[in-house]
Amino acid sequence: MTLDELREHAAELDRNDPLTQFRDRFCIPRHTDGTEVAYLCGNSLGLAPKAARATVGQELVAWENLGVEGHFKHERPWVSFHELFATHLAQIVGAKPYEVVAMNTLTVNLHLMLTSFYRPNSRRFKVLVGHTAFPSDRYAIASQIALRGYSPDEAIVTAKPLAASRVLRTEDVVELIEQHAGELALVLMDGVNYYTGELIDIAAITESAHRHGIVAGFDLAHAAGNVPLALHDWNADFAVWCHYKYLNGGPGCVAGCFVHEHHGLAREPLPRMAGWWGHDKHSRFGMGPEFEPIPGAEGWQLSNPPLFSLAALLPALELFAESGMDRLRAKSEALTGFLEHALRELFPEWVEIITPSEPARRGCQLSVRVKRDAKSAFASLVANGVICDWREPDVIRLAPVPLYNQFADVVRVAEVLSCAK
Predict the structure, then answer these.
(1) Alpha-carbon gap, residue 238 to 187, rounded angstroms
(2) Residue-wise burial string across 147-181, b where 16 or more C-beta atoms lie within 10 A, e elsewhere
């Protein structure tokens, strides 16, 4: 393949892209030369929907004109504003609306879930995590273990790839669960690993954990909005995720949480860290001393959510509802496959892709090792208008997001790397 052939193929694919109109509904940053950048960093921070400014502005105007009465007299009352998200989020993660809620931030939600679902005892106190788990997850897990009086060094079991591989196999995780079944209190895995881009089999791992009475929870920070999910049908106990990556809610955006109905609607509520926004809606403003949790995931809320953050997220979720995860996944596989093919064909000797090659085992991300001067290659990409991500010691992460990326963005990557080599 030559660069000219790559350009021609990309142009044809972009002309026939059924989702091409969605790109125009996002703000695409511009390079110093005035052209649009090739933004391949949606796995770190998604782009801003153009509608977000107006949606946030409406709530600012309501605050200016109504003050506190905006909680009840606004056309979208703030007291129930978070309820607008339940159906959207349920579709994205494959849940029932009462199993999901937009609240807090990801690590806060993880701590809340660990408080309820990590119930260690002298026999079962260990937690199984995946290799290269995001540092914040390990910090949260280690601190929760220590708070219960156990040693993190002893209690954390890490699922690692075989020596000849950089990625986990589902069967190896299942084997590790079997090996430690009598000691594990919790399995906590990434849906998509942030470093390698590998997609894990949530259903298989959940089934394996449940077979031994072990709780199964998941961090979906790099999976929600990236790959189709079916948390309810897969029987995951809980999951947490952020909305600022693939879901385009803005930096530091309010996060999401899933609690399976087995737990959220249980006759005896799980122990939890309680707050007044999780209290029964009908008596919340009675200000009574006894906590009565809302049935479902909403019962884990602490405080009323940040209104402007939710307002920025709403138009992004509406775009997902309009496009549909099935169509997004189809384009994601095509874009990521096109990028992989270009890198392997044009740079076979000095580029190594550590993300699984099988489309079913990855999201819309390729983690690339450059065998020469990796940092120089990364700097060259950024200097020439390709916004991507660097991870130590030598990995460049490229995320072709289907909502706003086009096949021409892949050509831009290839053009820059051709000059760099």
Answers:
(1) 11
(2) eeebeeeebbbebebeeeebbbbeeebbebbeebe
Q: For residue 398, give Cα distances in angstroms to 29, 184, 195, 305, 335.
A: 17, 35, 11, 32, 11
In angstroms, what CA-CA distances link 345 with 20, 340, 356, 373? Answer: 26, 8, 17, 20
Sheet of strand 126-130, all strands in order from the earlier edge strand to the far edge = 100-103, 255-259, 238-241, 215-219, 184-190, 126-130, 156-159
DSSP SS3 for 349: coil
- The CATH homologous superfamily for domain 3-47+324-420 is Aspartate Aminotransferase, domain 1 (3.90.1150.10)
- State pTM to two decimals: 0.96
Beta bridge partners of 313: none
Measured distance CA(134)–CA(250) in Å, rounded:
20
For the chain, give every domain's residue range.
3-47+324-420, 57-321
- Is domain 57-321 in CATH 2.20.70.100, yes or no? no
Q: In this predicted model, what pLDDT tens digit does every residue of 203-223 receive, in sequence order?
A: 999 999 999 999 999 999 999
| Rounded CA separation 202/216 (Å) | 9
Q: What are phi and psi of 355, to 5 degrees?
A: -75, 140
Which pLDDT does position 279 carry in this prediction?
Answer: 96
